[in-house]
Structure formats: structure tokens, C-alpha cells
User: Fold this.
Amino acid sequence: MEKRDPANCRAAILFQGYNCPMRSTRRQFVLSSLPAAAATAANKLPADGPRLLIAGLTMLDGRAQFDDTMNRDYLAHLQQGGADGVLVLGTTGEFSSFSVRERKQILESAIRHKGKLSIMAQVATPNLPETLELLDHAARAGAGSALVLPPFYFKNPSLDGLTAFYEPVLRAARVPVYLYNIPQLSGAPISAELLARLSSHEHLVGVKDSFSKTDAMLALMGQFPKLHYYTGVTANIAANLAAGGAGTITGSGSYFLSETLAIFEAHRKGGDRQAAQTSYDAAARAMAGYANIPASKFAMTLRGLKESACRPPFTTLTAIEKQALKAKLT
Assistant:
């Protein structure tokens, strides 16, 4: 049985501060309606400028067990293609389909094979004790930063409840922490009100927003100019860069790496970001109509990698689906 350190054992006590879910309001799902404030780009960027991070796939063998060798080859492909880093066990990484023990194994493999890639670990679970355990493991294993979803399953928790969840996380953190806004799946938005409560914590450095439309994204960037703001909405990449954002953490970047990189290259060289964005959008439409994770895993075979299995509730594409998608992508 795995031994847990005292910091993780204390999580059970901290968890008692979590409040019961409250009645939802439409306003909770709006990041901010305030106009974007004037802010310099420098204080919204990581130290090395805007970055292209891939929301990584989790590579599984034919028995749907994690495969270290496949993961090594996958990370090498991303590095060679020009990615700056990888988010391990995000939504695209099927994090919710793995045990705590497996999640530790997967992260350790990514750090072992990262090469020059930076590693961000998504550590959240629906409960605070295991979230703290995975956060501690991420720091000890050598992850550069952590991404933390709000507690999920209970939808629309109160602002007090979300604060009670995140404050122990931020106090315990030994790596920079990003909050993950994806309320269409988590059922709990990262609102401007929540960020206002948490922004004084030294380890809170930014947001990954996989929900907001462009105007809402720009408004939040203006309201919290010191936070690094990554977009997970691929249609927002050019706008994020133009406004001095931190860049993107994109699931579709595994396959459309060169198209995504072209937006960054246009930005860095003073070229036409929007033209590159339009080209990316056109290419990415090939994936429409397919479940994203199985389609992405099959698409990687067209880049020369071995096809990864999926964990339930996902299943691999059928032979007919593969044939149709291959025709679109090639």
C-alpha cells in the first residue's frame, strides 16, 4: 500500500471547508462582462514569451494500459515539431479515466522523456485530499507547473465553496498553479469574482480558458493583467497573441502542430496572424463530427506513430470512420 506523507493526510481536514452546491445562475458561466483594461503585454506573458503547449494524449497499448515507449515517441514527435511544452493529463489526456497511481506513473514518464519540453501537470480530482496528493507528487516529480480544475461532479458550487477548495491548493503548492476554466465539462466556472479572491496567492500565476468567446477572454485578460492567460479555444489563438496573452494549450495541436505553429511564427515575425489563424481553422474542420480523443489518436498514425487505444467511455474509431477521416486529413 502506498505511503502518504503528512501533508496529504491533512487534506481530509482541509476538505471539510467545502460548501454544498448552490442554485446556478447564468452569470456564473460568464468570466467577465467588464471592458478590457489597458495593460502591458509584458506582465501577462511567461518569461520566455507566448508559448505553444500541447494538451497531450495519453498513449495506451492494445489493452488500454499506459505505454511508456509510445509516450516517449509521442513526446519526441511534439518536440521535433516545435512545441514548447506539454500539458499532461488534461481533458485530451483522459485524466478522469485513470487512477491516482496511474496518473503518477504517466506524469513520471512524461518528465523522464520530456527532452526540452516544459511539463504542466493537471492534478485535480473531485476531492481535495487526492488533489493535494497529486499536486505534491507533481512538484516532487519535477513538473514545471500545475493546472487545477475546480471540483467536479457537483455542478455550480458557490463562490465560497470554490474558494474553500482552491485556497488549500494554493497554500500547499510548490510549483506555479494555473486554474482551468472549462465549465461545459466541470460544471464550475473560473469567474472573475473567484480570481479576485485568489489573486493574492503567490503561487497562482494564470488561467487556461477552454470556454470563453473572444470578447470574454480579452475582458478577463484586461481585468487581471498580471496573470498568464492561455487559451484552449483554438479559434482564439491569434487574438490571444495580439492582446499579449501567454499563448495556447491546445488538444488539436498534436496533429495540427505545424498549422498552430504558423500562427505563432506570424506573431513573432510581425506577419499576418489572422491569415494563419484562418488557415488553421480550415484545416481543423476536418476533425468535425468525430469524437476528439479517438480521432486525434488515429490521426497520429498518419504522422508515423503507433495508434493508441482509448479508455472508456471512449472507443477507437471504426474502420469506416478511419477511412473517411484519413481521406479528409490527407
About this structure: Residues 68-81 form the longest helix (14 residues). The beta strands are 51-55, 85-88, 118-122, 145-148, 177-181, 204-209, 228-231, 247-250. The two ends are 49 Å apart (CA to CA). The domain at 50-329 is CATH 3.20.20.70 (TIM Barrel).
